[in-house]
Amino acid sequence: MNKKQITMVTIALMLGNVMAGLDGTITNTAIPAIVSALHGIQFMGWIVAIYLLGMSVSIPIWTKIGEKITNKLAFEIALGLFVLGSTLEGIAPSIYFFLVARMIMGIGGGGMGSLPYIIAGYVFPNIKKRTQILGYLTASFNGAAILGPLVGGWLIDTLSWHWVFYINIPIGLIALLISLIYYKPVTPKSAPVFDLGGAFLLVTGLIMFLMGIQLLGLTATWIVVGLILLSIVLLIFFFFHEAKTENPIIPLSIFRNHDLNGDFILFATTWGAFIAVNTYLPMWAQALLGMSALMGGMTLIPNSIVEIIASQTVATIQEKIRTFTLVMIGIVTMMISSGGLFLANNQTSLWMLIVVGAFSGIGVGFIFVGLQVKVQIDAGMKDMATATSTSYLIRILAQTVMAAVYGVIMNLALASGINSHSNITMKMMNELSDAKSAKLLPQYLLPEMRRIFHSGIHEIMAVSFILLIIATVFNFYFNFRQPNKKLNRSSK
Predict the structure, then answer these.
(1) What is the C-alpha to C-alpha distance for residues 329 and 373, in angstroms, rounded to an integer?
(2) Each residue of 206-220: pLDDT tens digit?
(3) Whole-angstrom Cα distance, residue 273 to residue 462?
(4) Helix or strand or coil: residue 247?
(5) Hey, is 126 helix, strand or coil?
(6) Is the N or the C terminus of the chain less surrounded, counting Cβ atoms within 10 Å?
(7) What phi, psi does 217 have (nearest 5°)?
(8) Neighbour-count burial of 396, counting CB atoms closer than 10 A to its CB (0-12 exposed, 13-18 middle, 19+ buried)
């Protein structure tokens, strides 16, 4: 492709990331209005969970679809599914219809989330330039995430919650049109055989596993254990199948790569830690400080701003320092956030919480871009696409699993607090996180209710900090003695 075509394709990839970033925060703002209109309060958690489920099960498949029909066409299909899902969510007459549409949107989101980084790996063979483009993609995601609470609040107040999803239609169609006109892919000489058996085993195994994780604390223990055991059996069959198939969904050879294993473990531990700050800082503002949902969402804006700045500086910084040092800086800044929120109490000011929380944005910006480039270098061009999508899958799985674990920790803390106070109920604790309903609660009980809620967040931040200590150990083990690989070399 010529320079203009490459520029336009980069814009299309960024627009895809804009939609994904916007959905991540704009939907959270709209959830109360959605469950109220569709009478689905019992499915509130599933609005987020089913989207992550769609992403998780589809990410490895999109890589192979790209190999079969070109990454261009795969990206365009992913865009189409995302826009279709958004449209169906906007017109949903019931919560069940909405959740099915949300799953479709998640499947499209899996392609939109993983394919741009694979495409960048092929379009930009120069590592330094690729690092810069990955920074642009990260910045577009985070920039949209910043606007999400503001745009969502305005759309809901001015029009209705439906427009939170309709806004994706013009953005998606523009990205699709740009890709159709300007993206000129390299067509493979021969289309590889698609591994249908492996795809079935992997998707079914992941669905069973994630369903079990999401149902922790919500249903009978034997159901959770049964789903997880069934998923393990299916995934074992998947790996046996992959060892014998001609074109595996995930080549097992990538797990024999020592450096790649280190990259995957660091992604899992740091992303599992980050989701704690990202999820519970807004809840802290609402439940403990009595802020509105809009203000709660806005507590993450400084976090996203510093993440954009950090991701944009990686290309320059990584030329001068080793990946070990870059990742270590990221881990330490994330520790400041998790550790700071662990030490904070009910009287800590909102501004102090925002400043402490913003440090995790520095860590995510450094670690994401730095490690994503390292994954592609460590894998080599042969396994670059698979390793990139696998690293993305691992991040999503880490977020999904740890989100469920943190939810269980919070539920146990709330249950323990409620059992020791006969005047406080779980219904009252639920109302505490909404500024309007909190005003109707008995005011003399608010200090104790906030203490109970804070105890849950306190324990969650402790687990997050422990994950970052584990990440530190693995960073020393895998990267301390490893020389920095040259970033200015090009793939031939």
Answers:
(1) 17
(2) 788 877 876 776 678
(3) 10
(4) coil
(5) strand
(6) C
(7) 80, -5
(8) buried
